[in-house]
Amino acid sequence: MLSEDGVVKPRMLINGELVGASDQKTFPVYNPATREVSALVPEASADDTNAAVAAAKAAFPSWSALDPTARGACMKKLAALIRQNIPELARLEAISMGIPVSKFHYGHTCAFQFDHFAEAWPHIQGQSSVNTPGHVTMTLRQPYGVVALIIPWNAPVHFFGSKAAPALITGNTVVVKSSEKAPLAVARIAELIIEAGFPQGVFNILSGHGVPSGQILSRHMDVRALSFTGSSRTGKLIQEEAARTNLKKVILELGGKSPAIVFDDANLAKAVEQTQGSVQSNSGQVCMANTRIYVQKGVAKKFVDAFTKRFAAVRDGDPLKKETNHGPQADEVQYRNVLRYIEEGKGSGKLAVGGGGKLESKNGFFIEPTVFLDTPETAKIMKEEVFGPVVNINTFETEEEVIAKANDTEFGLYAAVYTRNINRAMRVAKALESGYVGINCTSPLTGRDLPFGGWKGSGQGREGVLYSMSNFLETKSVIIQLDDE
Ligand code: NAD
């Protein structure tokens, strides 16, 4: 990737060529740990976005007609190239959104998706039956055509792989729009896509803000399906645009306000370690982080003492250094947002640890791990996604009470319950309004072959190695009448 004076100059991938914006417009990305300019990134214009969709549309007939093993061969090559470039991808993410290189495992998860789906094509199957007398019926599963993939900044390389790989193997052509906060690693992968030998126009990558490029993709008449991971606010806007234009299929993976419930018979040391890890992971910038923890009264003091001690001991610092396990927030906007929530939290709950930013002392967008106790359930900080290293710990007495509190949210992405009582564990798991439930474990842990997705305002649709291909396949019913000879 071009780099001058340490400033990275990435390009977009449109119709098989690495290009800048057609109007030459760029935007800066700052290293959130130092506030220095890391990169000058092309801002995809309306023309660029339309050109990427047109290229994908032109490439669709031959890509979808290709032997799926040939599609898979490009994907396997890309997986290998991604693996070879993991240290560079880690560095590019660190200098754009601040994830410590020691915590960057997304190169592997991304490569895994391309490898897995490269060989998953035999599962693209319809059904057949003779249940209609005098007829044979069947269903065909076929690609949509041009698919748009809009990804967030908190784990861009991971979402890039988990969306693009199933879309491509099923015969769709794609236009990916990376996040304006973290476009660098994805731009590096754009270069690897050329090396991997994808035919021209099959795989296009745009960089830029939600408006114009994301919005244009959402309302584009030639985009037939759109998979989005990001905030609930943007998800709703995309859904509106899709409804207003061509009713493209929309898959939404949105935000969360995940509860973790700790009963007094739980393995407390494990509950502390895992719930703290959940909210610290990626500096709290994880959709499924357990940001509301409910602890049964009898063990609350012990839990809070151990949790706050552990949480306050994170090693923040330069994300490029191996010893750092806690990076800054992704940018100034995120930093200021989190600080606003912390100030609001101070007015509604009891501050137990942290409670501030470290801009003066560290010169980057670092936030102190922050714990609030006894916050009213109706407080803003209990209802909205903070997306920072901030957690609310409240107490409860009964199972009924805690289920009601845990479910009193518009989100429903992940919930956790810690107890040694299997009956209680299963009762609570069943009662929780959530797309995922961890029993004696919590996020970001997920089962390798389980579906992932939200209930309620956390999204619609499911992703996963057994589920994502379906998101990119239309179903056609065919009925054949048999003549009597
Ligand atoms: P965001 O919604 O601000 O941005 C996500 C993407 O949408 C970016 O590429 C952005 O440029 C684009 N975008 C913005 N406005 C748009 C518009 N009007 N039309 C089309 N595209 C537009 O989200 P973010 O801040 O990047 O990511 C954080 C959010 O993502 C959090 O809410 C988090 O919970 C959620 N998230 C969800 C999951 C999940 O799997 N459910 C995973 C990770 C993150």
TrEMBL record:
Pfam families registered for this protein in UniProt: Aldedh
SUPFAM superfamilies referenced in this protein's UniProt entry, alphabetically: ALDH-like (SSF53720)
Active site residues per record: E253
Limits of the Aldehyde dehydrogenase domain: 22-478
Record's catalysed reaction(s): an aldehyde + NAD(+) + H2O = a carboxylate + NADH + 2 H(+)
GO MF terms held by the record: aldehyde dehydrogenase (NAD+) activity
UniProt EC number: 1.2.1.3
UniProt keywords, alphabetically: Oxidoreductase
Source organism superkingdom: Eukaryota
Family to which the UniProt record says this protein belongs: Belongs to the aldehyde dehydrogenase family.
Protein name as annotated: aldehyde dehydrogenase (NAD(+))
Phylogenetic classification of the source organism: Eukaryota, Fungi, Dikarya, Ascomycota, Pezizomycotina
